[in-house]
Structure formats: structure tokens, C-alpha cells
């Protein structure tokens, strides 16, 4: 795959996290569909183990994907805006350290939510057989409320706002780079036309040097975006696309988080309607992220 730089490493971690989220979230979706469409289906175990249990752990990777997307946007934004100050600082080793640290933070952040769920052995009164049941502790509602404030309001909006700001900056830098490259193309074309009109090779050479704005005119200070190589420009474009997908895919969730504060009854059944959105969002972003590293191999 060629994990040669911090961008490909970050995209690789992002794709792994998205696929892990899907791997845990899809069983939950399937179990809920069966519970709704076939309520009399006999399960060999408590269906909530799949319907709720795997879903709880899937959001660990959902959070981590959001953190990685923010990290990707911020790092690339800094490297484009201030390349001399930041580009040499963002090494592969430091990138790996940041990615691992963010995963540990995601785990610690979800530990309180994980702690209120239990697998308990209960007896079925009809069959007199024991089976494992998914239960919650008495602290569930208190812990869940506190967790929702952080994980469904504060952190998502902080991440969302940060990515939006970074995308605006990246788009501006891409626009500057595009204008600069167009000006170089125009200048090169004009020089070629002027050189072809002269019959004397030596005079043509001197005339070309005299008319060359790079050699005769005072050198103007190029902005960082104008100094981007073709490969750097391609990296910025790919990162910008990933961030834009993050913005649009996260927007319904952000709207839901605001509506949840206005209407507390929103969670009673409404979450089932956004299951497909969450799965599609992770699949699209994960697929794009997974294809990202191969572009720079």
C-alpha cells in the first residue's frame, strides 16, 4: 500500500476505523430489522446483545474516525498555510503517536458508557433454560445523559466547526495555487510566441532572457500555496474531498443533536430512522479513505 508519509498513514487509520465501525454496526442494524419485521422470531440468545451491544462498541470507532478526520484537516491546513514552520515537524513517528493517543482518548471517553452494560445469565421461565441477557445497571440513565452531553453535542460540534474552518482555508489555498499555475502557463506561452518570431538565435536567446519576468523583474514573495508541488497539490485536493464528505455526512447528525436538545422525546424511536444514514456515511467515507493511500503509493 505504501505508507510513506503522514497523509497515507492517517488515511489508512481512518479507513480501518470506518470499516471497524461498519463491522460492529451492521449486526446491530440486521438484528433490529429482524426484531421489527419478525417479532415472533425465536432467538437462541438475547437479540439485544446484537441490537444494542455491538452498536455501543461501534461508536468507539465512530468517534475515532471523527478525531482522525479533524487531525487530517488540521495538519494539512497547517502544512499548507505555514509549510516552513510545520511541514518538517509532522513526521511519520509523530503522526503515529498522535493517532494512537487519539484512539486511547476515544477509549477512555467511552469507558463510562461501556461500564453500565452487562451480560447477565437469566432463566427462561417457559423453557427453564439459562441464557445470556444484555442488561444495564442502575446508573445507566445518569451516565448516558452525561455521555450524551459530551459525545453528542460538545465534541461533535467542536470537530465539525474545526473541519469546516480548515476546509475553507484549504479551498482558498487551492484557488491561489490554481491562479498561480495559470499565470505560469500564460507566461510560458507568450515567451514561446515571442521567441519564434525572431530569426537570429543569439538575439532570440538574449531577447528571451531580457523579457523573462523571472530573471529581470524583482522576485515577488510567493505564498505557501504557490510553492506547492504537483504531488502536494494532489494530496491537498484528496484531503479536502475527505473533509467535505465528513462535513456533509455529519450534517444530519449535527442537526439531530440540536433537535435532541429542543425535543427530549426525539430519541424514543427516532434513532431507528437514522440507522441507514450512519451506515451509508461510514461506508462512503471509509471507501474513499481506503482508496486515498493508493493514490500516493
Automatic annotation (TrEMBL):
Keywords: Cell membrane, G-protein coupled receptor, Membrane, Receptor, Transducer, Transmembrane, Transmembrane helix. Residues 194-218 have a biased composition (Polar residues). One of its GO terms (molecular function) is G protein-coupled peptide receptor activity. It comes from the Eukaryota. SUPFAM superfamilies: Family A G protein-coupled receptor-like. Residues 1-259 form the G-protein coupled receptors family 1 profile domain. Residues 185-228 are annotated as: Disordered. It is a multi-pass membrane protein. It is found in: Cell membrane. One of its GO terms (cellular component) is plasma membrane. The chain crosses the membrane at residues 56-75, 96-112, 154-171, 235-253. One of its GO terms (biological process) is neuropeptide signaling pathway. This is Chemosensory receptor c. It comes from Plakobranchus ocellatus.
Amino acid at each position: 500500500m505504501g505508507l510513506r508519509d503522514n497523509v497515507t498513514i492517517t488515511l489508512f487509520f481512518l479507513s480501518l476505523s470506518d470499516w471497524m465501525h461498519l463491522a460492529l454496526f451492521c449486526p446491530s442494524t440486521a438484528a433490529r430489522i429482524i426484531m421489527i419485521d419478525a417479532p415472533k422470531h425465536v432467538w437462541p440468545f438475547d437479540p439485544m446483545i446484537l441490537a444494542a451491544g455491538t452498536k455501543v462498541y461501534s461508536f468507539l470507532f465512530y468517534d475515532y474516525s471523527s478525531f482522525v478526520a479533524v487531525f487530517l484537516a488540521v495538519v494539512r491546513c497547517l502544512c499548507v498555510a505555514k509549510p516552513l514552520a510545520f511541514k518538517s515537524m509532522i513526521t511519520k513517528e509523530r503522526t503515529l503517536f498522535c493517532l494512537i493517543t487519539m484512539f486511547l482518548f476515544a477509549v477512555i471517553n467511552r469507558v463510562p458508557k461501556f461500564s453500565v452494560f452487562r451480560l447477565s445469565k437469566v432463566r427462561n421461565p417457559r423453557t427453564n433454560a439459562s441464557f445470556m441477557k444484555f442488561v444495564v445497571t442502575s446508573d445507566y440513565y445518569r451516565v448516558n445523559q452525561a455521555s450524551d452531553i459530551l459525545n453528542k453535542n460538545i465534541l461533535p460540534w467542536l470537530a465539525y466547526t474545526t473541519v469546516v474552518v480548515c476546509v475553507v482555508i484549504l479551498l482558498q489555498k487551492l484557488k491561489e495555487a490554481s491562479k498561480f499555475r495559470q499565470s505560469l502557463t500564460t507566461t510560458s506561452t507568450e515567451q514561446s510566441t515571442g521567441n519564434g518570431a525572431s530569426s537570429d538565435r543569439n538575439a532570440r536567446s538574449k531577447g528571451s532572457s531580457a523579457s523573462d519576468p523571472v530573471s529581470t523583474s524583482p522576485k515577488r514573495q510567493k505564498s505557501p500555496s504557490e510553492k506547492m508541488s504537483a504531488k502536494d497539490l494532489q494530496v491537498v485536493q484528496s484531503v479536502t474531498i475527505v473533509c467535505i464528505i465528513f462535513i456533509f455526512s455529519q450534517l444530519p447528525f449535527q442537526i439531530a443533536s440540536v433537535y435532541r436538545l429542543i425535543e427530549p422525546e426525539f430519541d424514543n424511536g427516532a434513532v431507528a430512522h437514522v440507522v441507514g444514514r450512519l451506515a451509508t456515511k461510514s461506508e462512503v467515507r471509509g471507501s474513499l479513505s481506503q482508496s486515498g493511500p493508493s493514490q500516493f503509493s
